[in-house]
Amino acid sequence: MAVQDGLIKVRASVRLLSTEEGGRTDPIKGGYRPNHNFFGPDSREMTIGLIDLPDGVELRPGETMDLTIAFWAWPGLVGQIHPGRRWSIQEGARLVGVGTVKDVLE
Known about the structure:
The chain is mainly beta. Helix content is 4%, strand content 48%. It has one helix and nine strands.
């Protein structure tokens, strides 16, 4: 796995939960920095990750999009990132989306 400048970059499929599922009420745009939980629903061990949407692009609740995400690489996370790996996207303790790694970028 390539770690550059302290970051692990991936191409991932991200689905925001719909408002009816308890997700956000508004779309995300630009740079969005939610919590990323790779360790299960009871874990409070999260990582920082930037979901960077191109200018003019929005991801609305209930939608799925393939995106590039940059995670801060720390020792406990490095072994968790691989194609097919699923994780939770959270705002605090609230689940707002799910992601699946498609490719780890060099």
